[in-house]
Design brief:
alpha+beta; 4-stranded antiparallel β-sheet; 23% strand; 158 residues; 6 helices
């Protein structure tokens, strides 16, 4: 999923606003969340470093994953250092961003030992010679009974 975070400053109220957009339909970004932050509090967090900006950034309504939060925090720091008033955007393509985090040696198929692959083959083997404990008769404990002579053929109804 593509996501876009727009960072802008509302000068008349001295608030930092972050809008989160998500791609709910193909090539259409919809507003998911808008969070407002106190300008002075964010400036104090920026002076303390990126970790403090991430902490200040995360709220009950907006809690981006670590990788996203780092990118947003970096842009917030750049936004406050520059005198610009134009909104900044952070665009994240979810599959591309999370691909590196997912792929690790723990998930590589080549690391399977021969004994493990034999066990997996045995589990996937669909030959079953044993008899089932279930009987052919279906037993239903219900007060509703269906009469055999009341069965209707669907084709006759049409």
């Amino acid at each position: 999923m593509k996501q876009k975070f727009r960072i802008l400053k509302e000068n008349n109220t001295n608030r930092l606003i972050i809008q989160e957009f998500g791609e709910l339909d193909k090539d259409v970004l919809s507003l998911l969340c808008e969070e407002s932050y106190d300008d002075a509090r964010m400036a104090t967090a920026i002076e303390s470093g990126k970790e403090k900006v991430i902490i200040a950034l995360r709220t009950k309504n907006m809690y981006p994953p670590r990788g996203h939060a780092e990118k947003i925090a970096e842009q917030i720091m750049i936004f406050y250092e520059s005198p610009q008033t134009e909104p900044m955007e952070v665009i994240i393509d979810e599959p591309a961003a999370s691909y590196k985090e997912i792929m690790s040696e723990d998930f590589m198929v080549d690391d399977l030992e021969d004994d493990d692959s034999e066990v997996i083959d045995d589990i996937l083997d669909d030959d079953f010679d044993g008899e089932s404990d279930e009987s052919d008769d279906i037993k239903i404990d219900s007060s509703i009974k269906i009469a055999d002579d009341d069965a209707v053929d669907v084709e006759d109804e049409l």
